[in-house]
Amino acid sequence: MTTPELLEQLKLTEQRIANAWNQLLIKRMSEIRHDETSEPWMLEDQADRELINFTQKVMQHRLSVARRKGRYGWWNQHSCDTSVLTGLLQRAMDDDDLVSVINYSAMLHVRKITDAQ
Hints:
Blueprint: H1 3-33, H2 40-68, H3 82-94, H4 98-115
Helix pairs in contact: 1-2, 2-4, 3-4
């Protein structure tokens, strides 16, 4: 199998995994919404954990795809100025690309903390 064929297989596999994550999230959130037996704080905790788990997975997937496309260096102030990240965040917001909004926001948050050191 050639490299382009392998990359296409990887892309298809990742898409199947992403679809499975989406279906699992829908199922779990539906269960939480319809749970009338648990205490409200327990439902909030469950919903928060589902949010965190799902967000981690979609972030990892999107970052992996970007890395394969040759994008890198967001974490390094010498490679990537925060103004670039701010511009990318604004474009993601304009495009309603919420996963990219999450990623660029997180990148800017980490840079704000680490660049100050």
